[in-house]
Amino acid sequence: MKTNEIDFLVTKQYRLFVEFCTACRRDKYIGICYGPPGVGKTLSARNYSRWNDIGQLDPFSEKSLYTTDLSDKKTIFYTAPVSNSPKRLDDGLNDCLFKLRAAMFYGDDNDNQDKVNDGCELMIVDEADRLSLPSLEHLRDKYDQGNFGLIVVGMPGLEKKMARYPQFYSRVGFSHAYNPLSDEEMEFVLRHHWEKLGLSLRLDDFTDKEAVSSVIRVTTGNFRLVNRLFSQIKRIMAINDLSSISKEVVESARRCLVIGVN
Ligand SMILES: Nc1ncnc2c1ncn2[C@@H]1O[C@H](COP(=O)(O)OP(=O)(O)O)[C@@H](O)[C@H]1O
Ligand SMILES: [Mg+2]
Known about the structure:
single chain, alpha/beta, Rossmann fold, Helicase, Ruva Protein, domain 3, 2 domains, 12 helices, elongated, binds magnesium ion
């Protein structure tokens, strides 16, 4: 599923992530964000940096095409490639900086010139587990020479990996654990999914309550699994012409998911 096809939900985890980004940006520290796959790290970082829009900009096109200021966060989002050399990393980051600069030039307003001069305030590097030692060194050097905050995002264990590189680790100001959805938050997310299927979730209704418990048990608060489960639920409801989601529907949907659930 492409990220721009998803309705982004503002969860508590996202709000905490935003606070973390704001702190790293303000204090120009290095921050480490880690969490299990599928909890929403990448989507949160893309949303914070507005990278779904900025990432698509063509810096060479007419600047008047950009009608809104996309660059208020002054943040770039970069995904470390599977095979990375310092050169490749540098090219990738420069490309992102170029796009951010293009976004800052929106409209024809002269005031924008000052903003461009301020430049990037935060770099978010996703899939940072992939970074080789030379690339990490390069990143640190870029950070030392620049005047911005840096966030590396990865799986749990990233903070331990980074601790092995004292040069990098000594500059880390914050670390942030990105957690799965809590049960209360799941209710909020599920309400949204119910609505998307044209239903309204009623927790005083036993069938709904049972279905919600079942989804929570199957997905253990993992955002990606919730979305995958619901695409199956939608299919099963359509095939069987059902008008409510029951525990049985959730169970059947779960059986259709080959991996990731047990
Ligand atoms: N805030 C959100 N609102 C809606 N869906 C989300 C949200 N966060 C994550 N998801 C869903 O979970 C999937 C995995 O999110 P992602 O950010 O790629 O996780 P991670 O980077 O932690 O592995 C997304 O593709 C999307 O379907
Ligand atoms: Mg990710």
